[in-house]
Specification:
The complex is a heterotrimer of chains A (90), B (276) and C (394). Chain A is built from three helices and four strands; from the N terminus they run βαββαβα. Helices cover 22% and strands 18% of the residues of chain A. In chain A, the strands form two sheets. Chain A has a two-stranded antiparallel ribbon with strand order 1-4. In chain A, strands 2-3 form a two-stranded antiparallel ribbon. Chain A has a single domain, classed as Alpha-Beta Plaits, CATH 3.30.70.20. By secondary structure, chain A is an alpha+beta fold. Chain B is an alpha/beta fold and 276 residues long. Chain B has a single domain, classed as Thiamin diphosphate (ThDP)-binding fold, Pyr/PP domains (Rossmann fold, 3-Layer(aba) Sandwich). Chain B is built from eight helices and eight strands; from the N terminus they run αββαβααβαβαβααββ. Chain B has an eight-stranded mixed sheet, sandwiched between helices. The longest helix of chain B has 15 residues. In chain C, helix 2 links the parallel strand 2 and strand 3. Chain C has 394 residues and is an alpha/beta fold. In chain C, strands 2, 3, 4, 5, 6, 7, 8 and 14 form an eight-stranded mixed sheet that branches. In chain C, strands 11-13-12-15-16 form a five-stranded mixed sheet, sandwiched between helices. A two-stranded antiparallel sheet of chain C has the order 1-9. Chain C has two domains: 283 residues, Thiamin diphosphate (ThDP)-binding fold, Pyr/PP domains (Rossmann fold); 107 residues, Rossmann fold. Classes of the chains: A alpha+beta (90), B alpha/beta (276), C alpha/beta (394). At the A-B interface, strand 1, helix 1 and helix 3 of A face helix 1, helix 6 and helix 8 of B. Strand 2 of chain B pairs parallel with strand 10 of chain C.
């Protein structure tokens, strides 16, 4: 196995802030600690997850935050795919 | 990979699975830290992965917080009376055997007021997928104890702690004839989704118990704090044992922190399904 | 009598189900044959005297014509199962007697609230509680109307003969589908266990009223399964049809979504009651003998009507001015006809024989200041014609 060819997937985090109820599951269980609470609150008064400063490239697109969100308020997409397409196009 | 520019994370107002949900009803009524939303989410994901037409899926619920599940999934869905989700679903499944009928309801609904239907649906191997959300109490009415409340745990109708022995649901489901029996927690979300998917693929009575926090009622009465605290209990104490050898050992004691909680896919057998 | 169930379409595949011809048949079996002729797809039930013959007959007959028979664990489950099957498009039936009828009340309310058609045959026995399981009663009349909690409308037919057990069962299925409502066949032990001539028509002559389905395709305009038409009855789509309906026993809006506010509740519940009340002229059925000039009017239903008719004929032969009003539907109650009789002025008194302690009389008294003479028996025996005649002669 040639590890130099292995790529860690890179994810984009999408947050639907108005659905969040601040249960903390996504923040707590993110394996790469990508997320933290927002300083802002949503209309219901909850602090929703945001990507922490310095963690912008840390999402590995494992989707756990998505699957474990009771509110369907967060999901991730594959950034490496998007960006390699952009590279190809460029 | 050589991404040099910093990734910009977009905001969103639609989730990719929204088409399988009645997204116009979100946010749902369930409390922060409640696990039922994850069950709804997992069911929708399982539908998406099932490869079956959406219109072949039907969701039936009973009453209680878990009973609200049917109201949030965008398939033909029926929110019935307390305890009667199973016979209602049986009527659908028998009349239209090609439909994939999933019952999502709570421990009180399915095992107390609906207990008779549960054992008979399992006995006759009705072609139903049952997701029994066990939050150890009656949440919607304010945290009364029920047939799954662990001995010693408190509820508003057992202020000194219940003394009744709770059901061991996988044991009950196996003994009464279910062809697929699993227990997961909402923290084991991938395994739980796979179990739902397996139940959708199987003919016959499939029973999945899924443990879910009820921070507002059960948690508060039993010093479990918030939903995350109960998730941590699952993380620390759950032990996976597929095809469990001794079903009597599957009792759950959520309160005694020295006791492990066994999860896994326990039964997966073939038996002729009822009128399907 | 208005005929709201004239044949609109021939029932598909009906020939195998319809035992056309003349039979000597038990009332319970005639009910089962009526259900088969009406196209019943699904039966769920629990054995109970004196209705068991309906279940037994369908257990034998239904699988042969492509239907499904399920013996459930109890009446709670039976009732829920027939609603579920109906939600998936089945014409569905259960059969029971008093104790089982009590257990079914919970889901009867659900059927009323979800507006899912279904038919319940209640072969009444002497009650309350276990009562006289093998002997006649007519004491579930008010329970049929008011038994589940809350306000809602229902339809209840009261056959007086095996022939009517057949005919009214067909009618019950059509009415259930037409009005999206639970419909009762309120039989009694005497009628259920009586064998008489039953003439079953050709399949093409069995009336069939289909449910009103959606007007557009599943991917067309949004379909609201609780948006009522002018007749106050909404269109229905079934599980698997592709309309992704949501139905709930909670108060709901036109989409079926829970809408937990007083205004929505008031509108919805009024419609559930009004859809029967406003259409009562089309639904209500009764039989009359010589009411135009009668001073004494006997009102009765079910097996009691057989004694009552005999007494009325005897009285008239003796020159007594006496007429007979036999209720075929007890719900909706023939209020209009009774008010008319009272208003005409020639009626001096009503006589109401029944096998309960005054349930029908109570309804009649509600409509008139005239004396309502009663002949009650708590159950176990038919009222004798002589006793009714004695009252007529007073």
């Amino acid at each position: 196995m040639d590890l130099s060819l292995a790529q860690v997937p890179r994810g984009l985090v999408h947050v639907i802030a108005e659905r969040c109820k601040e249960c903390n599951f996504c923040i707590n269980y993110c394996p790469t600690d990508v997320l933290e609470y927002s300083t802002e609150i949503n209309a219901k008064g909850y602090h929703y997850p945001v990507v922490a400063e310095g963690k912008e490239d840390a999402c590995i697109q494992c989707r756990f935050c998505d699957l474990i969100c009771p509110e369907l308020a967060i999901y991730t997409t594959d950034a490496s795919a998007t960006q390699s397409k952009e590279r190809d196009a460029g | 990979m050589s991404v040099t520019e910093q990734t910009v994370h977009p905001t969103a107002d639609v989730h990719p699975i929204d088409h399988l949900l009645r997204a116009d009803r979100l946010p749902h009524i369930l409390c922060p830290g409640c696990g039922i939303g994850i069950v709804i989410h997992s069911y929708a994901q399982a539908i998406a992965e099932s490869g079956m037409p959406e219109n072949d899926h039907v969701c039936v619920s009973g009453i209680g917080c878990s009973g609200r599940a049917a109201g949030y999934v965008n398939v033909d869905s029926y929110h019935t009376t307390h305890g009667r989700a199973l016979p209602f679903a049986l009527g659908i499944a028998v009349h239209k055997p090609d439909l994939n009928v999933t019952v999502i309801s709570g421990d009180g609904d399915l095992t107390a007021i609906g207990g008779n239907h549960l054992i008979h649906a399992a006995r006759r191997n009705a072609n139903l997928n049952v997701i029994c959300i066990n939050n150890f109490n009656y949440g919607m009415t304010g945290g009364q104890v029920g047939p799954t409340t662990p001995i010693g745990a408190r509820g508003s109708t057992a202020p000194r702690g219940t003394t009744e022995r709770p059901f061991n649901l996988p044991y009950l489901a196996k003994a009464t004839g279910a062809v697929f029996v699993a227990r997961w927690t909402i923290l084991h979300v991938r395994e739980f989704q796979q179990a739902i998917l397996r139940s959708m693929q199987k003919k016959g009575f499939c029973f999945i118990e899924v443990l879910a926090p009820c921070p507002t009622s059960f948690g508060r009465a039993n010093k479990i704090g918030d939903g995350l605290h109960e998730m941590e209990i699952y993380r620390e104490r759950c032990r996976i044992e597929h095809g469990a050898s001794n079903f009597e050992d599957l009792d759950i004691d959520l309160i005694d922190d020295k006791k492990s909680i066994t999860v896994g896919n326990f039964v997966d057998i073939e038996r002729e399904a009822f009128l399907s | 009598m208005p005929d709201n169930t004239a044949a609109k379409t021939a029932q598909p595949g009906a020939a195998a189900r319809v035992l056309s011809g003349t039979h000597f048949m038990l009332g319970d079996h005639a009910c089962a044959e009526g259900a088969l002729a009406a196209g019943v797809d699904f039966f769920a039930g629990y054995p109970i005297t004196p209705s068991t013959e309906i279940a037994e007959h369908l257990a034998r007959r239904l699988p042969d014509v492509g239907g499904r028979f399920v013996q459930m664990e109890d009446e709670l489950g039976s009732m829920a199962a027939i609603i579920g099957a109906s939600a998936a498009g089945a014409r569905s039936l259960t059969a029971t007697s008093g104790p089982g009828f009590s257990l079914m009340m919970e889901s009867i309310g659900l059927a009323a609230m979800m507006e899912i058609p279904c038919v319940v045959a209640n072969v009444q026995r002497a009650s309350p509680s276990t009562g006289l399981p093998t002997m006649v009663g007519q004491s579930d009349i008010l329970q049929a109307r008011w038994g589940s909690h809350g306000d809602y409308g229902v339809i209840a037919y009261c056959p007086e003969s095996p022939q009517e057990c057949f005919d009214l069962t067909v009618r019950a299925f059509n009415a259930a589908d037409q009005y999206r409502v639970p419909v009762f066949i309120l039989m009694d032990e005497v009628v259920g266990h009586m064998a008489e001539r039953v003439v079953i028509p050709d399949a093409t002559d069995v009336p069939f009223v289909p449910r009103k389905g959606p007007e557009s395709a599943p991917d067309g305009d949004p379909f609201y399964c609780y948006a009522a038409d002018e007749d106050l009855v909404p269109r229905i789509a079934h599980a698997g049809d592709g309309y992704k309906v949501h139905m709930t026993g909670l108060t709901h809006d036109e989409r079926g979504y829970p809408a937990l506010d007083a205004e929505t509740h008031d509108q919805l519940i009024n419609r559930l009651v009004d859809k029967i009340r406003m259409n009562a002229a089309d639904i209500e059925m009764h039989d009359e003998i010589d009411l135009d000039d009668a001073e004494t009017v006997v009102i009765s239903l079910g097996c009691t009507a057989r004694s009552a008719r005999h007494a009325v004929n005897e009285a008239r032969a003796d020159g007594i001015s006496c007429g007979f009003l036999r209720l075929i539907t007890v719900w909706p109650f023939p209020e209009k006809r009774i008010r008319e009789l009272v208003a005409k002025g020639n009626v001096k008194r009503f006589v109401v024989p029944e096998i309960n302690l005054g349930q029908l009389r109570r309804e009649v008294e509600r409509l008139t200041q005239l004396p309502v003479l009663r002949l009650n028996h708590a159950g176990g025996a038919m009222p004798e014609p002589e006793k009714i005649l004695e009252l007529i002669r007073i």
